[in-house]
Amino acid sequence: MKVVALAGGVGGAKLADGLYRVLPPDTLTVIGNTADDLELFGLHISPDLDTVMYTLAGLANPATGWGVVGDTFTTLGMLERYGEDAWFRLGDADFATHLRRTAGMRAGQRLTEVTASLTAPLGIRARLLPMCDERVATEIETPEGWRDFQDYFVRRRHEDRVTQVRFAGIEQARMTPETADALAAADFIIFCPSNPLVSVGPILAVPGLRDALVASPAIKIAVSPIVGGKALKGPADRMLAERGIEVSAYGVATGYVGLLDAMMIDLLDTADAPRIEGLGMAVQAAQTVMHNDEDRQQLARAALAFAATLAPRQSVV
Ligand code: FO1
Question: Where does ligand 1 bind, in terms of residues with CB under 6 Å?
Fold first, then answer.
């Protein structure tokens, strides 16, 4: 059995981790958002890929969901002494990842190849694929003008009103052969509970990827990142509202029409089920809030079991 998960940052990484723990090794491929990537101190940083990577390796900082557990900040402290602005908290161990990624890319490796060269030594027996190898940058329009994603998200704590979102460079991006193969070979494709506009959105915007998803024979299922009218983490709820999209599991589902066979919603949102079914999707409610490892695995098992009911010949994990 082959499973593909589409994931953004912290929320996506949690479900990807649950899937990783309940599936046999070498079954899972995670396609990660790279439109949040940034360059700092001459280094290429891929926050969402790293969040998934550290989480699967059991290295993620449980307090933040990003960064490395127990990391120290000596390097960043020294950079601050040199007068650099340390608004983006890069730890010492995390720096090693960015050094290695940047060196690999300067030597001509694709981001896909460099990412594999990082996950393998950490013992990760899942494939982690960037959504594309080209540089794509999410830009956020606020009443004061356009901002880079991390400037909006981290430096300004996603407090600005968002009037538009764009993915600079997306027209030049190409679906990679690795992603195309993973989608074509998948039995189940799971949209993790990540922000539909700025985490899953850029992945789906990579030219060719949406068509490959539609063409894939896999059962496709999304887990709603909106529970009880609120985002589990981050600004997804405000972003949806500002774009005139209903802040609910139903609102999320409207953005995925034509792509999904099914939606998994939280038990709090069962009242949304008939309207989502009206969009042509099967619906199941479950406990979707992941407080601990057991919650992640339980949600992963529930999503796989639900997907399997829609593909009767598949065996359930
Ligand atoms: N998020 C923050 O809110 N503050 C930070 O200082 C920060 C640093 C950081 C460093 C490395 C990394 O991989 C991620 C980091 N993040 C930080 C998280 C990240 O930028 C966002 O959560 C995602 O881009 C949104 O998915």
Answer: 8-10, 36, 47-48, 50-51, 66-67, 88-90, 94, 150, 153-154
